[in-house]
Design a protein that fits this description.
The protein is an alpha+beta fold. It has helices at 8-23, 88-92, and strands at residues 29-37, 64-72, 75-82. The chain has a domain at 27-40 and 48-93.
């Protein structure tokens, strides 16, 4: 079963381009963008055995941190953190 937005022709075209770059020994760099809420709840914590883990919460925490990361040959090249939304101008820089 395929994803409803799957594009078989596009996937095949991408694989052909990828193989052509690999044949030329061109470096293939993978980029990804993700983000997380500053006030994201933590589901786990540490406490002495048999004791309850209490937490403190900053109820004023707001915002979101967005991240762009790059990998080459399964090694992280670098990451960039942004406190703003990532639009195409930021992503392509």
């Amino acid at each position: 079963m395929n994803h409803p937005k799957a594009d078989e022709k596009g996937r095949i075209a991408f694989q052909k381009k990828l193989k052509a770059y690999q044949k030329k020994k061109a470096p293939i760099v993978y980029l990804d963008e993700s983000g997380f809420a500053v006030d994201m709840p933590r589901l786990w914590g540490y406490a002495p055995e048999g004791r309850r883990c209490y937490r403190k919460c900053n109820w004023r925490a707001r915002g979101r941190i967005n991240v762009i990361g790059a990998m080459l040959n399964k090694q992280l090249l670098g990451i960039a953190l942004f406190e703003s939304s990532i639009d195409s101008d930021i992503f392509y820089q």
